[in-house]
Amino acid sequence: MYQIVEEAAEKIRTMEVRGAARIAKFAAETLKKFAEAVESNFDENMNKAAEILLNTRPTAVSLYNAINYVMRYEGENDAEKRENAVKRAEEFIRWVETAHERIGKIGARRIRKNSVVMTHCNSSAALAVIKEAFREGRVAEVFATESRPRLQGHLTVRELSNAGIPATLIVDSAVRYFIEDVDYVVVGADTITANGALINKIGTSQIALAAKEARVPFMVAAETYKFSPKTLFGELVVIEERDASEVAPPEILSLKGVRVRNPAFDATPREYIDVIITEIGAIPPEMAYLVIKERLGYAVFEEGELKISPKHFD
Length: 314
What we know:
The active site is at residues 121, 190. By secondary structure, the chain is an alpha/beta fold.
């Protein structure tokens, strides 16, 4: 029975399933399948499954919110709990599926005709904005960074090409060189904190800084399930560091006195962000607190764990 969860966790851990939205949806789908397979001791088994999934990607708040939403199931017995958990998983999956369409339409309206856009990593939400803007004649070309070391930018240009959108792939270190040719930067998000800061793929903060200097609007496309309730209570976002072998060959790793570090994410201050595009509208980063409070809902710490009660799912 736990094979369902273990296999899913491995796909998230090894980045076979990547991207905050895809991870969140995949986690909800996994918990749904697992709930349907549990025959007894429903609470105990579901808690164990949730813990396995939660431990895969500590920075991805979308994973936390997806699991937390499903795990708020209710019922008097195992049958009722199973039914409610499956229902909540399906609700969350629909939320993921409809958010991108709304974000695309809202974000596209903020882009002028025939603009050049730069993007980073491989964000389905950011691509939703870019694709919709292209359909409306608002995007003429896209600069996409390689996004080392996992090269998610290669996925992005392939997706842009399939959509018929002219794209230029650049190395991460060339952002400052090309920023003067760009009208907008559109990126996704792994986490939005309570104070409006953005946690995203490593290199995002450098792009935001270059955009600020060049007076290029910096837009973040983020579903509201990427906002972090934990940060309301002072908890810091864990910046995941991945294996050094992703960025250096064995002959470098074996050098005496040489240390190789590979942070997967960085933090972009809210001062560098012009607007956050969500499925409920375009908001300034300062409104992150209200989104967390009103959209996700939150309660208090219970037995050392933050309990949230998501609401307004449609």
